[in-house]
Amino acid sequence: MLGFACLLWVGCSKDTKAAAPEGGGLPVKVAEARAVAVNDTSEYVATLKSRDSTVIMPQVEGQIVQIFVHSGDHVAAGALLLQIDPLKQQAAVKSQQDTRTAQEASLQYAQQQYQRTSGLYAAGVISKQELDQSKSALDAANAQLEALDANVHEQQVQLHYYRVTAPRAGIVGDIPVRVGDRVTTATSLTTVDQPGSLEVYVYVPLERAPQLKMNLPVEVLDGSAQVVGESRISFISPQVDNATQTVLVKARIANSRDSLRQMQFIRARVIWGTGKRPVVPILAVSRIGGQYFAFLAEPGPKPGAYVARQKPLKIGQTVNNDYVVLDGVKPGDKLIVSGTQILSDGAPVIPQSSN
After folding, report:
1. What's the CA gap between 17 and 344, in Å, rounded?
2. What is the dihedral of CA 293, 299, 302, 305, to 10 degrees?
3. Is the torsion defined by CA of 139, 143, 146, 152 positive or negative?
4. What pLDDT sits at residue 8?
5. Is it the case that residue 1 has pLDDT exceeding 50?
6. Which CATH superfamily is domain 42-52+194-274 in?
7. Terminus-to-terminus CA distance in the chain, angstroms?
């Protein structure tokens, strides 16, 4: 029994030595960190606003009696959108017109009186003072009629405002009001939008403001991070938003396919410039507690030996199957791309090419 145990121990010892890698290290595949030209970018939440959107607000107060369009309708310039109850204004116009008619009669009488007075004055029957009084009455009647003409015109213009029309051709937006609602000059009735270019409003943090300049490239991204529009900065606000400590920049975005919408929240990528940055394979990077790490094969204490060193990384954007590294790796470093799950810092390794 004792002999069998010895044989078993000897056999186990031989198996263990056979399983141990030659040189006392774990064979790992390595890839050299390479530098590539990448864009220095930042992504921000932005808002799209139409450059051809008109907010329709009434110019008079009153109750809505009819709505002639629906949201999404295409309308021509001058198309009737809503009708505000005009009865009170129509009565005001009628009253002014009646007053004007009465004044016309007064003017005719003043003209007749002046003609009669002129004849009597020519015959020497009345004095010059009576003629002047008659002329003054005629001038006053004529001036009063002109004033009434202006009042009638003003009331008629006001009556026109009770018919709310489209100032331009376009698409009717949301109509938040209903028949029977009372509106004021501060009430938003709807919008009329023309399909076409939009402006992206990007709020850039103050610490990045010194790098802002006109014509910097801007990309608009959809939900899957695909670029749906490209532009350049066309406006930089000279002021800082006091509440958010950001600087507003704008860029015009073509919307030929109508894939973007007015007041839509999107992601905007500002491209600050292009430079050389090291990239590392995604498979070589691990994430622990929100921090990114990678193992590098570095020379060990003995000549020709290597050990694994765990390095914290600052990761940038993704390029194909690689991470752009902002800090932690430099071009030429040997990245360990296999066996990282069982490695520990300082463990001996035998680098092997990953090709």
Report:
1. 21
2. 80
3. negative
4. 35
5. no
6. Efflux pump adaptor protein, beta barrel domain (2.40.30.170)
7. 51
Count other C-beta atoms under 10 Å from residue 336's C-beta: 24
Joined together, the tokens standing for residue 262 give 């007015």
Q: How far is CA 316 from the centre of its chain?
A: 25
3-state SS track over 110-164? HHHHHHHHHHHHHCCCCCHHHHHHHHHHHHHHHHHHHHHHHHHHHHHHHHHCCEE
The whole-angstrom separation of Cα 127 and Cα 124 is 7
Going through 182-331 in order, the beta strands assigned E by DSSP cover 182-183, 190-193, 198-205, 217-221, 227-241, 246-253, 265-281, 285-288, 291-299, 306-319, 322-327
Q: Which of 28, 21, 23, 24 is nearest to 340 (CA)?
A: 28
Distance CA 109, CA 56 (A): 48
**Which residue type does 204 have?**
V
Longest alpha-carbon distance in the chain: 168
**CATH classification number, 62-82+165-193, choose in 2.60.40.10, 2.60.40.420, 3.10.450.50, 2.40.50.100:** 2.40.50.100
Q: Are 13 and 310 in contact (CB under 8 A)?
A: no
Percentage of the residues of the chain whose pLDDT score is greater than 90? 54
**Per-residue pLDDT band at 68 (split at 50, 70, 90):** very high
Residues 152, 100: contact at Cβ < 8 Å? yes
Q: How far apart are CA 309 and CA 344, in angstroms?
A: 8
> How far is Cα 85 from Cα 132, in angstroms, rounded to an integer?
49
CATH 2.40.420.20 fits 23-37+276-353, yes or no: yes
Tokens 């376009």, located at residue: 170
